[in-house]
Amino acid sequence: MTYQYPAYDRQQLENAVRTKTQYVFTLATGDVMDLGVTHEDDQAQIRDGGRFDLTPWRKNGPRSLLQAPPTTPREILTDASDVAAFLYLQLEPGAGPHGSGEISAMYSPLTTTTPRFVHVEPSV
């Protein structure tokens, strides 16, 4: 069984943060390297899933003002980091257009778990 999440929409994320509701979207990749995360332990954390602090993306990405809409998974997380402080990231094995797996991101106002911190390589 395959399932697909909607594409990232900054306005929907802003609405979810403002109204304290849940919003789930896809990062359109199953490869953790596409997020700018290269350390094996950090990659394993994302595969396992959890609540991730977005500070590393905010600090290592270009400012999103006056730029084209984000298209890569890393650009999506960098843009989302301007709106939300954290997202729940999870590798979904049966997701994606062909059921080959992809990483989902979810904003939820519930902060019951300790955030995970990863190192993001500086953008080139």
Shape: globular
Number of strands: 4
Structural domains: how many: 1
- Helical residue percent band: 25-40%
> Which series of helices and strands comes N to C?
HEHEHHEE
Overall pLDDT level: 86
Separation of the first and last Cα atoms: 38 Å
| Continuous helix count | 4
Order of strands in the sheet with the most strands?
Answer: 1-4-3-2
> What is the rounded Rg?
13 Å
Percentage of residues in DSSP E strands: 15-25%
Q: Assign the structural class, choosing from mainly alpha, mainly beta, alpha/beta, alpha+beta, or little secondary structure.
A: alpha+beta
Low-confidence stretches: none
The major beta sheet can be summarized as:
4 strands, antiparallel
List the helices and strands and how they pair.
Layout: H1 10-19, E1 23-26, H2 40-48, E2 50-53, H3 55-60, H4 73-80, E3 86-92, E4 102-107
Antiparallel strand pairs: 1-4, 2-3, 3-4
